[in-house]
Amino acid sequence: MNICVIGTGYVGLVSGTCFSEIGNKVTCIDLDEEKIERLKQGIIPIYEPGLKELVLKNIEEERLHFSTNLAEGMKDAEVVIIAVGTPQAPSGEANLEYVENVAVSIGENLNGYKVIVTKSTVPVGTGQRVKSIISEYSHGKYEFDVASNPEFLREGSAVYDTMNMDRAVIGVESKRAEEVLTKLHEPFNTEVVVTNVETSEMIKYASNAFLATKISFINEIANLSEHFGADVIKVAEGMGLDKRIGKHFLQAGIGYGGSCFPKDTSALIHIGREVGEDLSILKAVEEVNGKQRMRIADKVNEIYPDLEGKKLAVLGLAFKPNTDDMRYAPSIDLIPYFKNKGAEVIAYDPIAYENAAKEIEGLQYSTDLYETIKDSDAVIILTEWDEVKKMDLSKVKELVNEPIIIDGRNIYKLDDMKNSGFYYASIGRPTIK
Ligand SMILES: NC(=O)C1=CN([C@@H]2O[C@H](COP(=O)(O)OP(=O)(O)OC[C@H]3O[C@@H](n4cnc5c(N)ncnc54)[C@H](O)[C@@H]3O)[C@@H](O)[C@H]2O)C=CC1
Ligand SMILES: O=C(O)[C@H]1O[C@H](OP(=O)(O)OP(=O)(O)OC[C@H]2O[C@@H](n3ccc(=O)[nH]c3=O)[C@H](O)[C@@H]2O)[C@H](O)[C@@H](O)[C@@H]1O
Q1: Which of 159, 174, 328, 404 could disulfide-link 257, Cβ–Cβ 3.0 to 4.6 Å?
Q2: Whether residue 59 is found in the same domain as residue 176
Q3: What percentage of the chain carries pLDDT values higher than 70?
């Protein structure tokens, strides 16, 4: 199949590359000329495990192409996929300007029947909006179908998630579009849920909102557990073994970050408001999450009411491991907070330090874990990078000023920390003193 993917961000680049890997001819389009030039040379703008190898392989085998020319990409395409950003507008709703601009360009370049698929996360009803824009700008000259095919990949495991998807959701208005998109997904050997466009758009928001709800729920239980000496990791394990609950997304910590959960919960609340539905559960989810990252600050303040002259080693800048994405990362709030209170802060991250330096003014960082920790008065874990999980705690103890670890990601077992000589505070578990 010949496919044109518009937008080469996390979603467009990964799904375009994976569609080429399963045998399609894919042209990825972006407005950003420098990005496209670099992609043509196999230089990947984001850090995503396994992506570079797959891009290079498919360029080499001539299934994957990059261009800034939409007309060229669309010319022979049977499927055109919209994968541009839908960031949060100041009002909380999704900003659809990029999707609408792309719909105008698709309309102007339509040259025959195509299935126009929205993969970007968009409010329910956007498919119809895209359809009317394309009709207007193609002057009704050609037949086309609009469809919704939301993306469920996670950053940090995007290639794996796409090649091993749990399901594909296809929202269509015609049998013809259904056949094209079902065929496209056949090589993934996955369950395909076929619905109308609106249901498909709703499935995406509902999925992200539900996952965010699970996280805020377990974080509230964690905060409560701290008052009673209960251990939230065991609570989650005991709950999760019930198949109706499930064990995933019950890791308590400093709350969710990233480009999607914060903006998508906010967009869904806004969608509800517009039609007079008050999404009170989701509002509470946001409220809990907004406060959760500051639990770490409370735990540091408990040990050092005065941070003046203290050196803090912050481990992890990215919002989650295996990505260089800094969007809504806890470090963005916590590092300036500690610095404002007079602390000297040095941060470690194996990948995200350059992006972080753009977000956090005056950021001091190192890519050497033990160098970061040296002479610190407390080690604060914000991202559960493998390097941090595996660090040699006896070496850490020799290097630090004070053996104090404040762990926002619950990466160590309490039993291992009991006789370690560290003061170890984590989320939702008894503190070891
Ligand atoms: N990042 C993620 O993990 C996931 C994102 N999504 C959704 O997918 C969509 C895309 O997200 P990301 O890939 O993270 O976005 P991104 O911001 O990383 O990339 C968007 C790309 O689109 C390009 N673009 C914008 N307007 C264009 C136009 N008119 N023509 C051609 N290219 C254009 C930009 O230059 C940029 O390279 C969003 O709606 C997001 O909510 C869904 C699942 C996962
Ligand atoms: O729409 C999207 O963009 C994507 O959003 C999330 O993916 P992502 O944000 O990349 O990463 P997650 O692994 O979901 O983590 C999100 C945040 O939740 C936190 N989290 C996750 C799981 C958990 O149990 N506890 C927890 O605090 C992570 O630390 C991270 O800050 C969803 O998992 C994807 O299915 C979805 O496609």
Answers
A1: 328
A2: yes
A3: 100
Please give the backbone phi and psi of residue 88, each rounded to the nearest 5 degrees, phi first. -80, 130
Q: If DSSP codes are grouped into helix, strand and coil, which group holds residue 129?
A: helix
Dihedral sign (CA 214, 215, 220, 225): positive
Domain that holds residue 354: 293-425
Question: Rounded to an integer, what distance in angstroms lies between the CA atom of residue 173 and that of residue 226?
Answer: 51
260 is catalytic: yes
Task: For ligand 1, say whether the CB of 381 is within 6 Å of any of its atoms.
Answer: no
CATH number at residue 300: 3.40.50.720
Mean pLDDT of 271-278: 96
CA-only gyration radius of the chain, Å? 24
Query: Which ligand 1 atom sits nearest the alpha carbon of residue 260?
Result: 41
Q: How confident is the model at residue 386 (pLDDT cuts 50, 70, 90)?
A: very high
Q: Does residue 200 belong to any structural domain of this protein?
A: no
What confidence tier does 92 reach under pLDDT thresholds 50, 70, 90?
confident
The protein residue whose alpha carbon is closest to atom 34 in ligand 1 is: 7
- Quick check: 82 and 117 in contact, CB under 8 A? yes
Indicate which residue's Cα is closest to atom 19 of ligand 1: 9
**Which residues have C-beta atoms less than 6 Å from ligand 2?**
121, 151-155, 208, 211, 215, 249-251, 253, 256-261, 319-320
**Is position 431 within any domain?**
no
Is the pTM here over 0.90, yes or no? yes
Same domain flag for 184 and 275: no
Mean pLDDT of 170-193: 98
Q: Residue 317 Cα, ligand 2 centroid: separation in angstroms?
A: 16
- pLDDT, one tens digit per residue, over 212-268 is 999 999 999 999 999 999 999 999 999 999 999 999 999 999 999 998 999 999 999
Does 322 lie in the same domain as 269? no
CATH number where 215 lies: 1.10.1040.10
β-bridge mates for residue 358, sequence order: none
Domain end (from 270, 289, 308): 289
Closest ligand 2 atom, residue 257 Cα? 31
- The ligand minimizing its distance to the Cα of 261 is 2
Q: Which is the catalytic residue, given 4, 18, 28, 260?
A: 260
pLDDT in tens, 108-127: 999 999 999 999 999 999 99
Q: How far apart are CA 336 and CA 359, in angstroms?
A: 11
Ligand 1 close to Cβ of residue 78 (< 6 A): no
Strands 79-82 and 2-6 turn out to be parallel
